[in-house]
Amino acid sequence: SGLEDTVKKTIVDNPVVVYSKTWCSYSSEVKSLFKRLGAETLVIELDQLGSQGAQLQKTLESLTGQHTVPNVFIGGKHIGGCTDTVKLYQKGELESLLSQAGAT
Amino acid sequence: SGLEDTVKKTIVDNPVVVYSKTWCSYSSEVKSLFKRLGAETLVIELDQLGSQGAQLQKTLESLTGQHTVPNVFIGGKHIGGCTDTVKLYQKGELESLLSQAGAT
Ligand SMILES: N[C@@H](CCC(=O)N[C@@H](CS)C(=O)NCC(=O)O)C(=O)O
Ligand SMILES: N[C@@H](CCC(=O)N[C@@H](CS)C(=O)NCC(=O)O)C(=O)O
Ligand code: FES
């Protein structure tokens, strides 16, 4: 579909993409982690897009199997949510993923 | 108002009260902390109450100044949100608050 192509293009064109909701603390946590690491990040706030936001969330679910926010991509690859991203950071694996994707 | 009296009675009648939203991870975190500590907890899911939920959230805001979830009370006292509760736990102060309130 059109939205699937949009998402596929967005995650390839940007080193880090976070699909988020402005009022969600888990989304804020992952956004501030990337900020602290100096990673070039595209943030898409699903609750700021009207009905497109809900459609985009459904598209993300069909592409990744994940209906929750935050939904994180690095270098075109689906990473998962907040806990997944933080776990990679704690294992020391996030920084090399970011540099390989050209985000840092 | 009627709702203010309801909240005041609820927080006095129950040792621990958590106003929560079912799909919010910060709410889940604080609920599972109290479960792990074996604290007798009343959980009120604001998103399961229809229009009452939004009214209740407004009432909590006027009583506590806090419009966010989770909204935590122990022994009738307003504690705050998830980060406030976790900080008390990390400082070793949460357990004595719970036992003083008769939750454990
Ligand atoms: N472990 C996941 C949890 C994700 C999660 O449950 N997100 C919530 C908001 S914090 C959500 O999208 N809830 C909507 C739903 O469950 O439908 C993560 O770390 O991202
Ligand atoms: N630091 C607070 C954060 C609370 C917070 O921002 N909660 C969010 C959901 S995770 C909320 O209620 N957002 C609604 C809003 O901001 O209007 C806590 O630990 O509880
Ligand atoms: S909505 Fe509460 S942590 Fe996401």
UniProtKB/TrEMBL annotation, chains A, B:
Superkingdom, natural source: Eukaryota
Domain Glutaredoxin: 16-79
One GO-annotated biological process of the protein: cellular response to oxidative stress
Keyword Disulfide bond (UniProt): no
GO cellular component, one term: cytoplasm
Keywords, in A-Z order: Redox-active center
GO molecular function terms noted in the UniProt entry: glutathione disulfide oxidoreductase activity
Coiled coil segments of this chain: none
Family membership noted in the UniProt record: Belongs to the glutaredoxin family. CPYC subfamily.
Protein name from the UniProt record: Glutaredoxin domain-containing protein
Organism (species): Erythranthe guttata
Covered range of the whole protein: 75 to 178 of 182
